Amino acid sequence: MAYETILVEQHDRVGLIRLNRPKALNALNGQLIGELNAALDAFEQDRGIGCVVLTGSEKAFAAGADIKEMQAFTYPATYLDDFITSWERLSRARKPVIAAVAGFALGGGCELAMMCDFILAADTAKFGQPEIKLGVMPGAGGTQRLTRFVGKSKAMEMCLTGRLMDAAEAERVGLVSRVVPAAELVDEAMKVAAAIAGMSATVAMQTKESVNRSYETTLAEGIRFERRVFQAQFALADQKEGMSAFIEKRPAKFEH
Ligand code: HXC
To answer: Fewest CB atoms less than 10 Å from the CB: which of 100, 138, 214, 228?
Structure first.
């Protein structure tokens, strides 16, 4: 499929999606979200893909929803057409997705990054939910996910003032898993993704599902979910292979 607002590549078992509206700092319009969703659908259906990397440019992961497109939206149309639902596709991905963020990740851009499974940041990354300066609040999960990432005090301050958080602060407070030099960001994300894609595909996806459970349920229910899935993994050939490979001191060869 030919895309106009994203660039899509495949490197062995890793799918790479680059947001690509350079003149608008990758502002997220309806076309881009549609194309992103189509690319995700294709990667999810492809057994040859084990992990996806989502990135932007050196200057911007994404500077938010496209303000020029949103400016004319009305309340009834926003409610009836429910455009935000289409943004949620990424949060329902079953395969692991890594956000590789350099430059601005603002508003919907920060929200998109937080829908991924973890965020690798360049030292140039800047995160923020500046919607309040536009007369609205975050609308694609920002008030909820940012609060879970960084706690109430910082999330509240960021959402109420629109101030940006740099990469060092983002790492300190747990919004990102690691910070790397900007020039190495995509290579490092691809390396991490390749390692994940080399694991048992079933176990990687179940691990993602189980970690995500911790956001959605009580500790006791989450532990119960984990226990059931862990027990079931002893029915996988990959469990036999992984443990045999360790004992035989050789690399494991997992099923995909
Ligand atoms: C549309 C945008 C844009 C955006 C930047 N541009 N952000 N266009 N929507 N969100 C465009 C600018 O209009 C400009 O194009 C070009 O990109 C370069 O931007 P500049 O402002 O000239 O660059 P710079 O001076 O470097 O400033 C960078 C910036 C600033 C600090 C990131 O662009 C900015 O504040 N952008 C808006 C950030 C924001 O408020 N995001 C939240 C959006 S609301 P032209 O052609 O005009 O020169 C949101 C709600 C999500 O995300 C809700 C979920 C559905």
So the answer is: 228
Q: Which two tokens stand for residue 48?
A: 């040859």
**Is the CB of residue 13 less than 8 Å from the CB of residue 198?**
yes
Output the CA torsion sign for 24, 25, 28, 30: positive
Name the residue of 25, 137, 144 to mutate for ligand 1: max ligand atoms within 8 A of Cβ: 25
State the helix-helix crossing angle for 201-216 and 219-232, rounded to 10 degrees: 170
Half-sphere exposure at residue 187, Cβ-oriented, CA atoms within 13 angstroms: 5
pLDDT in tens, 134-146: 999 999 999 999 9
The candidate with the shortest Cα–Cα distance to 114, out of 102, 101, 131, 125, is 101
What's the rounded mean pLDDT across residues 191-209? 98
Q: pLDDT value at position 1?
A: 76
> Is residue 66 lining ligand 1, measured as CB closer than 6 Å?
yes
pLDDT number for residue 256 = 87
- 24: CA distance to ligand 1 center in Å? 7
Instruction: Decide: 168 and 162 in contact? Cβ < 8 Å.
Output: no
Provide the token pair at 208.
């993602």
Contacts of 161 (CB under 8 A, 6+ apart): 132
Structure tokens at 183: 């020039």
Strand partners, 67: none
What is the ipTM metric for this complex? 0.98
Residue 83's Cβ-count burial label (10 Å; 0-12, 13-18, 19+) is middle
Rounded to the nearest angstrom, the gap between the alpha carbon of residue 218 and the centroid of all alpha carbons in its chain is 23
Contact 53, 189 (CB under 8 A): yes
